[in-house]
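Incident log entry.

Two folding requests arrived from the same account within the same minute. Monitoring flagged them as a possible duplicate submission, but the sequences differ. Recording both here for audit purposes.

Request one:
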Amino acid sequence: MMNYTPFFTAEVPHLLKPLKADTPRLWGTMTAPQMLDHVQAGTSLFMAKRMMPLVVLEEKLDRLKAFLMSDKPFMESAPKPEQYLEFETKIFPEFDAQKEAFLKVLATFDHVTRTDADFWCFHPSFGRLNAEETRQLQYKHIRHHFQQFGLMPRQ
């Protein structure tokens, strides 16, 4: 079992420092403010404990969870679940304040997923996930978008 807390609480804030509102993306269509809004929305959605429809066949879930728990990255320009649209604000405050807001939600996520023995989330491509699986999903998701903006090397 991986200890994700140092990534969420120390590495992410450090990696986020050089990101500017006009940092160019390496792929996709998001701007840096849109990406921050997106990863914050994902973090909130992971904590929402909401069921939603699967977008994959149920018989593929074991294979998809195996991918999730692997060290293989998400593909570039992967489509986002439509449920994100409810959580993305599309309101971009002063950029440093937006960074701080994301870090605050991420710290809450880290705490909740470490301390709530009954934690679960549901992802339309991976099904119901326990805390460890959700922490891996969050780890992969942040890495994916930080790589998109050159904050981390692509695996």
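Request two (distinct sequence, not a duplicate):
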Amino acid sequence: MKYYIGIDNGLSGGITVIDENQKIIKSIVMPVIKGKKTEYDVNTIVGFFRGLDMDSQIDRTDMFVCLEKAHVRPISGKRACFMTGFGYGVMQGILESLCFSYEIVSPNEWMKDILKGMDTNDKKGSIMWCKRKYPNENWAATERSTKPHDGKTDSCALAVYCYRRNKGIV
């Protein structure tokens, strides 16, 4: 069986794994360490990826990853710009060191395909799309949260885009 992983690498991003039937295997909010300044929890992220082939006997050669390309917005502050680039580099480093096959995809590219025909092509669009495609999935960040987490929905949409790319649908 083949597996497709979508990564929204922002501090408020997410990681989603789907199988070749587009069933969600795992969907998590990007692991971070909260303190004075929120930082990536690199050890937990590495543990997540290492655990994929241990937990369910998934072979890494059967996994395909789409990593969202980071881009800096001019209105963002220095720290936000630094953390965007840092998170992007961290994810590439983890994927490379664990020998995952991955592709870098711009947000416009996957949104153009996944959100085709929708009135919106932003975070709200991915939430609406995921609620329609996976109506029984809980998109909240935690059990106590009530609102959908756009990092989880973006990563899920990226995973489906990854599936489509590898199947030649896109």
